[in-house]
């Protein structure tokens, strides 16, 4: 952490940067070179209140030749679903998302991925027009997947539970810090009392954790005893309160935290919540492969991914995980992992697969079938030119032949 009286800064020339790959739907934390702007910022942190020095661990040639002038804009390394949804909500006439003039233009692949996400969660229809659901989603300060989850939960009478889960997922950092040696020793003597989500997945566990905290009247000591980040849990409580105020207008029931003594045979109580998550995360579903627990994300050209080791998702008697799961994000560390995973049913996934088959990105962008028309126009123009050239050549040959015949006739007459 930077302190005002720091006098020395050591600049390695590298930074860990979060990147989103629209082809695979994965986030990765990559080590990349900093830009010249970042190098100047690091040097400026030395000696704010008194003279200081910045030691750069790279030659000046690398700075001048290899470093970018400015940092890559976040719009070019993030998912654009929220941005595209906002543009769609503006109702600008004849706006084609794929041809929109951004200040820092993202890749076409990122825009196509965003359109696909919005179509699968019913924010836009098959012609690219924003739906009534999409307008409600645009009003919520959340990712489209989380907004869609709340709206569907409202219809399924589990909005209170969904609000808690969405708030937990909105935490800026993980609520479960990496265990240190001291905490590991402590756990050996004092086992954690955190719930296990009935084995249905991490979303259910997050809900149960918040409910237990609520029952203690938001006791900070309870978070410390269970090795939960206090700052993160307080942030979650504030987010839930704000979301409850925003969504109050359309809520069909109470938004208060409702808890009950759930037994292991009462897993049916969470069925509606899991269905809402499946519909909200329609673009983040994965299917288990046959005979092993590797998953393949639906709708992405991705390699096999694994459930994160920290997940509470449990397997059946044969050691097999659920056939279909919904995940909050894909990350790449030592290998691809799904984080915050929850089991869903095949009957909920089938309609989403049907939508994937008839997806047309050009129509979703607002350009309709314009690219195809342009191709047809160009093709017809080329064909017309070729035909005209052929006809012109044929006329020329016929004129030459006619002139030759006239010349021979005149010569014979002489």
UniProtKB/TrEMBL annotation:
Superkingdom per UniProt: Eukaryota
Gene3D superfamilies according to UniProt: 1.20.120.1080, P-loop containing nucleotide triphosphate hydrolases
Keyword Ubl conjugation: no
Catalytic activity: ATP + H2O = ADP + phosphate + H(+)
Enzyme class: hydrolase
Region ranges (Disordered): 177-196
Domain Helicase-associated: from-to ranges: 113-207
E.C. code: 3.6.4.13
Keywords: ATP-binding, Helicase, Hydrolase, Nucleotide-binding
Cited PANTHER family: ATP-DEPENDENT RNA HELICASE, PRE-MRNA-SPLICING FACTOR ATP-DEPENDENT RNA HELICASE DEAH4-RELATED
Name of the protein this chain belongs to: RNA helicase
Species assigned in the record: Datura stramonium (Jimsonweed)
